[in-house]
Amino acid sequence: MRPRACVITGASTGIGEACALRLDRAGWRVFAGVRRDEDAATLRAKLSARSQPVIVDVADGASIGRAAETVAGMVGGEGLDGLVNNAGIAVAGPLEFLPLAEFRQQLEVNVTGPLAVTQALLPLIRLARGRVVFMGSIAGRLAMPMLGPYSASKHALEAMADALRVELQPWGMHVSLVEPGSIATPIWKKGNEAAAQAAARFPPRADELYRVLSAAMRKAAADAARRGAPPDTVAVVVEHALTAASPRTRYLVGADAKLRARIGALVPDRLRDRLFTRALGLPARGSRERAVR
Description:
alpha/beta; 11 helices; Rossmann fold
């Protein structure tokens, strides 16, 4: 029997790399998407001869097209058994001052990119009656301050996964959404670095208004990265979504993700805001306004 074949985007580090290595060990033929030749060389050394890295930038239509042609040439009429849309970035900062170009980039990479990759590969997925997995986040259900762009992109993935799941069900193709909580991956370090660079372009008023909140969120992100579950925790769930006889439509990964989901479902918005404010050590609602008066 031929090995099952899967494309995974954003496979150079973190969750994507963990998914690629786990599926490769399980006998899959993995096409691991990376953006740089050096990342491809590093990953190639970790994969079996059955699998291979593929250069693809999900924000570049031409790159997606070339990757789709490469994969099609390798799998032929047998098609693809799975697609894991994992590539993503985290843009952070106060929405009041966030450069719109950065917001557009967040949506381009995290929302438009996965759709473009899915469109390019669906003919191959249909041949094998394969499955699609979107890498969402608990932030897509419960947004956090200073992570509005990232949360917006993951909330959009929720809607896209729901719509695509219904659209593809007549052909027996399943769509799952994975919603991790805190996972120890480089995305948060990269997000913090990008936020620091962006802050340098903000007007002085932004620092005056949001200094306390920015510092609190940077500390929270560092703590999350330090205490986060290993990426393979998510890879286990992705493997289930691709292989289970009855895959779930949604997978919450991590105790914090499950707790935040309960808070989002059961706690009123205003109370939830107060809980976040207290957890981050921020001033109470209206306190600054009263101080000015």
